[in-house]
Write a structure and sequence with these properties.
- The complex is a heterodimer.
- Helices cover about 30% and strands about 30% of the residues of chain A.
- Chain A is built from nine helices and 16 strands.
- Chain A has a seven-stranded antiparallel beta sheet.
- Chain A starts with a strand and ends with a helix.
- Chain B has 19 helices and 14 strands.
- In chain B, the strands form three sheets. Chain B has a five-stranded parallel beta sheet, with helices on both faces. In chain B, strands 5-13-6-7-8 form a five-stranded parallel beta sheet.
- The two termini of chain B are about 40 Å apart.
- The chains are: A alpha/beta, B alpha/beta.
- The interface between A and B is large, with 41 and 39 residues.
- The complex binds FE2/S2 (inorganic) cluster.
- The site of FE2/S2 (inorganic) cluster (FES) has 12 residues of chain A, from loops.
């Protein structure tokens, strides 16, 4: 059992939870993730480790509540327990010295981006961070990212904060500007966003790293459910990734595979609502 | 008394039949297929053993169970004694009694098999083990030796790890098992279906280990959460038995379509996560109405029988050689056929075909014929030109095998591996790192539960010797 020390809401359906897990806290490196199962019967959910405090033995996790099992995780209050937390999994981010780098986060991807961007800044890279979301309510971690970013740019689809549009808009401007042109780009967010970023940087030959989030079970290479196509070859995101060369990723096949259980998720949501309605009805 | 029976009287008894759940019923639920013997039947079967002097059956058993002795006690209806003998030699008898290939081990060596049918040692092992589970109070409590003061870490809670842990704990060592998944049993839990090995059996066998003082820590991935060297520093000795791991890909087009599973994923979803068999499980599984499973081993049989139970109206085994070459146990093949599974033999998959939304719609195959024997001595399948055809399916399961998982070994460069990435060991299981031993699939590649257990038992003896006890 893993104690939850805090649980805060950062944006609609997005939580940051600090969890006691001393072994993971001391072993983890930026870019790695854990697999969490709130309780018996729940799914195993991969979650990026946002941060770790070795001395305190804690890790902070970002969770977007989109299905029944993630909902169950975020409903665990401070003082409560998560049944299983296993990790750290995946390959750590390769933190090189590129000089100027651009870090792009879309929606909850910004949470995944955060530890990586910070590690890049700590290694001496000059980081421009671009974060985007549907509206201002979905822009997260702006202050935390601003603390180490040389520049922080914000875009929203409805224009309620920063520039109206997608993160690629700001990235295109950076690339066009010889003063700001990055030597490497890190993009984490929804599949279409990462794909758009990779397409944007490809003609310029700018190294582009993306972090993939396929469906996982064990997270140790055992099931192959997390396979993604990289340069025409099957790779397991949980052991070979989750970060890959964005120019090699088959985003269409990833996007497709992510819809495998959509029908099931909907049924699960309905079942959950039905239960709640019954509870309400039964007082 | 049973011991009074003459050889002639023993020879006159015919081999017992295992009662089974009817195929029409069992292929629609996850209940155990083999129902187990009744007491009377079991005692009568034990009396078929002629107690021959040279005991070939014991040599046929990878963990060396004292078979004639436990059969003799059973024949005399002394069940506590039979259980004591069996449990003393075998850490997981209720598991072995169900999943061991006795027909190629102990029973293959039974002298009664020369001119008739061998004693049903496997069924009797299961009977005695199950009796012991239900009658723990009647079993003599064996006192544990004084604590040795030595600590041993076991990596992996599968058959090899559980066996080694039991043996080491009974020598007085403090044993901690580290398991990567959230539950115990390793392949016994995530790999073998409920209808062959009820999960309850694993729970009881694991509880017996906890009783002798073994500690089990789940959610620890050695190689990630802790390295081999960290463990080596914290413990006096190690036993590495983390299993085989990575599924081998088919490397044919369409492998990433929705509805394509590796056997590991398919079985893990259903067995460990309880998808499709427990309404309270949140883990989904695609329940195809038409399912093709590629491969001819026990894992392929487990997958296809599981697919039937998940509701497949048509389920087939697709195998590139002929039935005679299939590595699956005869009993598994028989059960699979009885459950209405089709066998497409001499058939090789070429491509998985999908629709515009990325869902599997068919498995494109090619007919094969058998040519001259290859290096393995098996006749080599050769493609028949122009024989391509499509089998319409919604789910394809790849059960062609697994290869070594580098997750753990990658963190210990001084751990010597063989050319396939498996850990290299000596006869006692010692690796190139002093005090670190290994066994099971991480050493052998894909093997059986009982061979893994044999490794665990041998390594435990070697570890005991290494720690200054008797080897
Ligand atoms: S999640 Fe199972 S292999 Fe990656």
């Amino acid at each position: 059992m893993f104690e939850v020390l805090s649980n805060e809401i950062l944006a609609p359906n997005l939580h940051r939870m600090v969890v006691m897990a001393p072994r993971i806290a001391s072993a983890r490196k930026p870019g790695q993730f854990v697999i969490v199962r709130a309780d018996r019967g729940e799914e195993r959910i991969p979650l990026t480790i946002g941060d770790a405090d070795q001395a305190a033995g804690t890790v902070s996790l970002f969770i977007q509540a989109i299905g029944a099992s993630t909902q169950r995780i975020v409903s665990t209050p401070a003082g409560g327990h998560l049944r299983d937390v296993a990790g750290p999994l995946g390959m750590p981010t390769h933190i090189g010295q590129w000089g100027r780098v651009a870090c792009l986060g879309g929606g909850v991807g910004t949470a995944v981006l955060y530890p990586l961007a910070r590690a890049l800044a700590e290694a001496g890279n000059r980081v421009t961070t671009i974060i985007g979301g549907r509206s201002d309510r979905y822009i997260i971690l702006a202050d935390e990212l601003a603390a180490f970013s040389e520049r922080l740019l914000v875009t929203t689809e409805d224009g309620s904060l920063g520039r109206q549009g997608f993160v690629t808009l700001e990235l295109a401007k950076l690339i066009a500007d010889p003063e700001h042109r990055p030597s490497a780009v890190f993009a984490i967010g929804p599949v279409p966003m990462m794909k758009a970023v990779a397409e944007l940087t490809r003609p310029h030959g700018i190294e582009t790293v993306v972090s993939l989030n396929p469906i996982m079970i064990d997270g140790t290479g055992m099931c192959g459910g997390c396979r993604v196509v990289i340069g025409g070859e099957a790779k397991f995101a949980c052991v070979d990734g989750p970060e890959f060369d964005g120019h090699q990723v088959d985003f269409d096949s990833l996007k497709d595979r992510l819809t495998m259980y959509q029908g099931h998720e909907e049924r699960a949501r309905h079942a959950a609502t039905d239960c709640r309605l019954k509870e309400v009805a039964n007082g | 008394m049973a011991n009074d029976l003459t050889i002639q009287e023993r020879l006159a008894i015919g081999r017992v039949h295992m009662p089974e759940l009817a195929p029409e019923i069992r292929s629609r639920n996850f209940e155990e297929v083999n129902r187990g013997l009744g007491r009377e039947e079991a005692v009568r079967e034990a009396r078929r053993c002629i107690q021959c002097k040279h005991r070939p059956c014991v040599d046929g058993c990878p963990v060396g169970v004292s078979i004639p002795e436990f059969l003799d006690a059973l024949a005399a209806e002394n069940l506590p004694e039979a259980a004591r003998i069996l449990q003393g030699d075998n850490a997981l008898p209720a598991v072995c009694g169900r999943v061991c290939p006795q027909e190629s081990q102990c029973e293959a060596k039974c002298v009664r098999g020369v001119k008739g049918e061998p004693v049903a040692i496997g069924y009797l092992e299961r009977f005695v083990a199950d009796w012991a589970m239900g009658n723990a109070a009647e079993l003599p409590k064996s006192a544990l030796p004084p604590a040795s003061g030595k600590r041993v870490a076991v990596v992996g809670c599968g058959p090899a790890g559980l066996t080694a842990a039991g043996e080491l704990a009974r020598q007085g060592h403090a044993v901690t098992i580290f398991e990567a998944l959230h539950d115990t049993g390793g392949v016994l839990r995530y790999g073998i279906p409920e209808f062959r090995l009820p999960k309850e059996i694993i729970d009881v066998e694991v509880a017996r280990l906890l009783d002798v003082g073994v500690t089990i820590e789940c959610n620890v991935i050695v190689g990630k959460t802790m390295t081999i060297h960290q463990l080596r520093d914290q413990f006096d000795a190690l036993f590495i038995a983390n299993g085989a791991g990575l599924p081998t890909m088919l490397n044919i087009p369409g492998e990433n379509l929705k509805g394509v599973y590796s056997a590991n994923e398919f079985l893990t979803r259903v067995n460990l996560m309880e998808a499709g068999r427990n309404p309270d499980s949140a883990t989904p599984i695609i329940q195809g109405r038409q399912v093709a499973v590629i491969g001819g081993g026990n894992t392929a049989m487990d997958c296809v029988r599981t697919a039937r139970r998940l509701g497949a109206e048509r389920a087939l085994i697709v195998y590139r050689r002929s039935e005679a070459e299939m590595p699956a146990r005869v009993e598994e093949i028989k059960h699979t056929k009885e459950e209405g599974v089709e066998f497409a033999m001499l058939t090789a998959p070429l491509e998985i075909v999908g629709d515009w939304e990325g869902w599997v719609t068919a498995l494109r195959c090619q007919k094969m014929e058998l040519g001259p024997p290859d290096e393995s001595g098996r006749r080599k399948p050769i493609a028949v030109a122009g024989s391509e055809y499509d089998i319409p399916v919604g789910v394809v399961v790849n059960a062609v095998g697994t290869r070594a998982n580098p997750l753990l070994t990658a963190t210990a460069p001084d751990l010597e591996l063989n050319q396939w990435g498996n850990i290299a060991v000596d006869a006692g299981g010692a690796t190139s790192i002093a005090g670190a031993f290994a066994g099971g699939d991480i050493v052998r590649g894909g093997a059986t539960v009982i061979l893994a257990m044999g490794d665990g038992k041998r390594a435990a003896a070697a570890i005991n010797g290494y720690l200054g006890g008797e080897a």
